[in-house]
Amino acid sequence: MDATELLLHPVRLRVLHALAGDRALTTSQLRERMPEVPKVTLYRHVGLLAEAGFLELVEEQRVRGAVERHYRLRRDRPVIDADAASAMSTDDHRRGFAASMAVLIAEFNAYLDRPGADPVADAVSYRQGTLWLSPDELAAIHRELLAVLGPLLANGPAPGRSPYLMSRIFFPSDSETARPDDE
Fold it and tell me: What is the pLDDT of residue 101?
């Protein structure tokens, strides 16, 4: 299974999100975060991610006669880079987007189900807006966002820090608009 196919699954994406920020978790801790995912299913997906090189085993210990494994994301893990994205079919992109949205919904519901969830106090935001951009302006936004967010991606867990899930989605919203190739 190639990296693209492996990542286009909502459960595997949620596992990767759960381990973001250099967190090491056991499958039991992952189950606590995803109680709606059957145990066997979760173990299978964790196994696939480890086998494919996305996860590394950090520690093993015996707990009540069973072996408990702590996994974290490999720092050098495979990614869907620009070349892989270019090779994806429109159906692959459709599946990838659907999987990403399923993960986003599941993660948001898990947040709301937590005791004491307070979207206002936690500065939760889910706004949409339309930007009219030239290709150069779109490229500039991507560069500027990377300049602002890039250093923050290196942040790890620390006192006073909470993990925030951020989704950045850009796509043309009007099929009637001229594409750069059409001009």
Answer: 84
**What is the structure's pLDDT at 113?**
83
- pLDDT tens-digit series, residues 116-160: 999 999 999 988 889 999 999 999 999 999 999 999 988 888 899
Angle at 139 between CA 133 and CA 145, to 5 degrees: 105
pTM over 0.85: no
Give the whole-angstrom CA distance, residue 121 versus residue 128.
Answer: 20
* Mean residue pLDDT across the chain: 85
CB atoms < 10 A from the CB of 39, how many?
11
CATH topology classification for 3-182: Arc Repressor Mutant, subunit A (1.10.10)
CA distance 39 to 52: 20
Closest alpha carbon to 71 in 100, 12, 14, 30: 30
Long-range pairs of 104-112 with CB within 8 A, sequence gap ≥ 24 = 104/165, 104/167, 106/10, 106/14, 106/34, 106/36, 107/14, 107/17, 107/165, 110/33, 110/34
The answer to whether the beta carbons of residues 69 and 54 sit under 8 Å apart is no
